[in-house]
UniProtKB/TrEMBL annotation:
<dbReference type="InterPro" id="IPR002347">
    <property type="entry name" value="SDR_fam"/>
</dbReference>
<dbReference type="InterPro" id="IPR020904">
    <property type="entry name" value="Sc_DH/Rdtase_CS"/>
</dbReference>
<dbReference type="Pfam" id="PF13561">
    <property type="entry name" value="adh_short_C2"/>
</dbReference>
<protein>
    <submittedName>
        <fullName>Short-chain dehydrogenase</fullName>
    </submittedName>
</protein>
<comment type="similarity">
    <text>Belongs to the short-chain dehydrogenases/reductases (SDR) family.</text>
</comment>
<dbReference type="GO" id="GO:0016616">
    <property type="term" value="F:oxidoreductase activity, acting on the CH-OH group of donors, NAD or NADP as acceptor"/>
</dbReference>
<dbReference type="InterPro" id="IPR036291">
    <property type="entry name" value="NAD(P)-bd_dom_sf"/>
</dbReference>
Length: 267
């Protein structure tokens, strides 16, 4: 049975590629967009079981779904991957660059350079190449398109351990702006989503430890972690005609975490 998301009716039937849909935020995006009636091309890398769970979670919507595997650290695999994804429904209306690696490493450690290169390949070079291919194919097909780049609050304010991750996300936000400026004339909109702390399978064990939860949730003004559904709803908003005049923006969704800055808490 098809369930329609009443908030974004224009998304029904839209063909959307979501990268990194095998877990976490990508899986939440797939759920919300399937409920909105989108036709989905779901990408995964090394976790086919996770992708099966995503497929299970959306099967009741009855939407058409295709799946495509790719390792984005192998940059030469990106063009054939994109061509498969584009061909799945004879074109795409939207691209969600969500796949990413959350690398923590200290710059003075010996292995930092490799981690840095790997992170930049997956988090920035791959979205750059996918976005460029998407824009070229949309222009050739004389159609409009929408890109959502899943960035992070680390693109705006970051901390120790995140040289690679922070650089990749700040770069992604800059790419969002450049592509918005270059491609507006072709009817292609590009925006970033900047999530704060969103527990996912990878982080449940750590973030739901009572001491960690107290520390993190205590620092978030709205008093809770984000959910993958929060991120899915924001992605639907950015893909929909509700934001037809919005491009080159970074939409921060963090419960107010970085709005606080580093000010000590006042009583
Ligand atoms: N969770 C948060 O608090 C948070 C906050 C801000 C931003 N984000 C961003 O949200 C996005 C999703 O992260 P998540 O938290 O949902 O983590 P996640 O559950 O670990 O999801 C990461 C996704 O990226 C894919 N991926 C990893 N390495 C890849 C590679 N080499 N090639 C292609 N795909 C690869 C994974 O595929 P496989 O599992 O199939 O390998 C998976 O689908 C990331 O861009 C992350 O930076 C997350």
């Amino acid at each position: 049975m098809q369930q329609n998301n009443p908030v974004f009716p224009d998304l029904k039937g839209k063909r959307i590629l979501i990268t990194g849909a095998s877990s976490g935020i990508g899986a939440g995006m797939a759920k919300v967009l399937a409920e909105a009636g989108c036709r989905l091309v779901l990408h995964y890398h090394a976790n086919p079981e996770g992708l099966s769970r995503t497929l299970d979670s959306i099967k009741d919507t009855g939407v058409e779904v295709e799946t495509v595997q790719s390792d984005f650290s192998q940059l030469s695999s990106i063009k054939p991957f994109f061509e498969k994804a584009w061909a799945a429904f004879a074109g795409l209306d939207g691209l969600v660059n969500n796949a990413g690696v959350i690398t923590k490493s200290l710059s003075l450690k010996d292995d930092e350079a490799d981690a840095y290169d790997y992170t930049l390949a997956v988090n920035l070079q791959a979205p750059y190449r996918l976005s460029t291919l998407f824009a070229k194919y949309c222009i050739a097909a004389e159609q409009s398109g929408v890109i959502v780049n899943n960035s992070s609050i680390h693109g705006q304010a970051t901390c120790e351990w995140f040289a690679a991750y922070g650089s990749s996300k700040a770069g992604l936000d800059a790419l969002t702006k450049v592509h918005a400026v270059e491609w507006g004339q072709y009817g292609i909109r590009v925006n970033s989503l900047a999530p704060g702390v969103v527990p996912v399978e990878r982080t449940f064990d750590v973030l739901y430890q009572p001491a960690m939860e107290k520390k993190w949730v205590g620092a978030i003004p709205v008093g809770r972690y984000g959910t993958v559904e929060d991120m899915g709803m924001a992605t639907a908003y950015l893909l929909s005609d509700a934001t037809s005049w919005m491009t080159g923006s970074v939409l921060t969704l963090d419960g107010g975490l970085i709005a606080r800055g580093n000010y000590p808490k006042r009583d």
